[in-house]
């Protein structure tokens, strides 16, 4: 495309090469509609599209969030109940979602398939510009909130997907703290409201206000369209113009985001949050000291990322250490939030007491003042800058499309009428930040925006027993009062609305409506399995696995140690070892120095405990401790020497430091436990069903229960050093090591030349395998102060003669987006539900942020009947197969390719197994799905359940459980 030339109504306003993304950026403007468009032209075949809108809310009713849900419930060209779900069922997308932020709403999609990418764009553009919800308030009732009443004698209740989602969000105390903090620090602007919705305010939203919000903001003149990847851009622009933008004319949209005037004096406040009646309130206070900034440049923002890492994230973080030594709390963290017009810098403390509130600010500002006056440690800053630079260059977003991350990044400028391309051009910013190391640049930032800043708030939460029950009683009384003031006609109207909503939810889309969603052919899908090549090398008796994939000059090294030499009761200490290694003194470095070395020379270091199930075996698995690191190829010598230092020369003799790290882990668990609900209940359920499940639970609830026990027992606490040393000696042995290396053949040779740095510190001892996992079948209820449930039920289908096939993966797709979606999310009001069928026979159903408990279990139990009566058209069957294949063909980064190759190796899975499974998916029939009914029914009859939820609901359903306990002690 050429500058100042019009293509399909779009004028090219700017063209600029962007070396950091290996592409060229084009800024365009649709002249008739006023729509903005940014296109990043690259060779990446994983194409990305998003349409975004600036959507600043004026209250906390969650209107922006509910609108995001609702526009995806049918549109002009796609008159279905939920086109989004139909897309997920049958698309080869590599990403498909929608996100509500504090001041914007984004609808992104990605796909490698040209036809699929076109279809995804079409459905999303039609959804945002011609949604059915603009004329149908029933959709807002379903997705937002409504009164539920089936008969005059029933109690009036609230129901709605977003309503229950946000009740789940606000079950976590840190979310409650964020709500209070933002309301106090941004009292006059949109950031003082919760765009997601505060549960107490969601029920204030009317359909009239909802519709007005849509009409105000969802217009092309307020849109930000983003395209990325290898595509025919002129054809794409013509499609967007002809099908959508040519139907609109530019208007003035007032979606401006006002600046909050600086507060005349700092805010100090505290609020209660609920904990269980049997839960200890010791060390449960949470503090937030937050500084609000004016608009910041890209250089200033990245500088604060460096400062945050240096002061709080690095193992040698001086401000974090000062707060911990002052006994302010068990866990301290910092965060720089720049995805809003006025960024903020927050210091958070958990595991504290409310009496420590005032001391927090005193220690923070006195410590910072001392650091600034004396001059910051420039080597520490350089180490943190190196880490930030590594992250930018690696561009690893955990398997998500890289173009998606770039698209979200540019919005942090584009939304505020600043240059979006600038945020991709990090080279000049890194140069300026390096130059700042030799000046007082960083010190001046801290003086200006922290020490001399009066726009700040010190906000705390303190625990209060019985508070959640009190709030639930207040809500029940409020609803009873509302109902008592209703006339018979009003009650009849609500009953009628409830019935009509259920009728709408239970209605089936017509074949004609379903046919409007474009669908690929099975012939569009390659039957060939993509296998990452793995080559084995014997290097001085050590088995080295080489994964030769392009990795941008970065090497990924993983050390695999088998854990069979440990006993089950020692697994806790292996998990603990993974938490503390790299954070303790070693023979040649203090923990602060080794953290600095890691950041100076490496891209990171981790240790994880990882079980790998053996293919087609019920209980056999390989228990692994995996030490990972990554570095530029030029720094591979630093990588091997630091790994050798950490795994071979760590000292465990500082009881004070160990206790500090244990308390930090418990404080993090106390704060974040509720948001881990899916993982907690599914792992705990599987722990009762299989040996690998029991092993996996040692990383979640099993670990934290043991952690509490150790911290409360002086004898156990005193023995931690000895236990860690024992586990270290048994794991880190020469005869127990396998290594994987991701990089080129030439880089591998350099790595092998340095491998002795690691192997020479390993023990020459040998240990016999002795790990044996014990199990007991107990149905458990986990009581919390939360407002919603996580309901899990499952078992093992191999116990009943079942075998794992590709048909089960198709069933997972079908259940997630049909049976469970309709009954648990749409009709039940939960945020969602899923099913998993594993090769070892483990099978689990789980709902999340669910207002129900017994009803959800009944839905699970109804599945066999549903399957026996299943009747799908060939088109519907094809849709589920394609959607399943999308999950099998995920995009992998070099690191993930290496990790997957090793998982297949340890799990004894080969290309033939994978090809057969893939073929089973492609050949799945309705009869195959029906054939699973009997074995699923037998597993469900085993009646293994675990539920985590509100204390009141757990107690009401106490008869379901063999054991009821508190999630948090």
Task: Flag low-confidence runs.
Answer: none
Number of strands: 28
Average residue-wise pLDDT: 95
Strand % is 15-25%
Sheet bearing the most strands, described? 9 strands, mixed
What structural class is derived from the secondary structure elements? Answer: alpha+beta
Count of DSSP H/I helices: 39
Radius of gyration: 28 Å
Approximate shape: globular
Q: What percent of the residues sit in helical stretches (DSSP H or I)?
A: 40-55%
Instruction: Report how far the terminal alpha carbons are from each other.
Output: 62 Å
Give an overview in words:
- Strands 1, 2, 3, 4, 5, 6, 7, 8 and 11 form a nine-stranded mixed beta sheet that branches. The protein has a six-stranded mixed beta sheet with strand order 17-18-22-19-21-20, sandwiched between helices. A six-stranded mixed beta sheet has the order 25-26-24-27-23-28, sandwiched between helices.
- A hairpin with a 4-residue loop joins strand 25 (832-837) and strand 26 (842-850).
- The chain is an alpha+beta fold and 969 residues long.
- The N and C termini lie far apart (62 Å).
- Helices cover 44% and strands 20% of the residues.
- It is built from 39 helices and 28 strands.
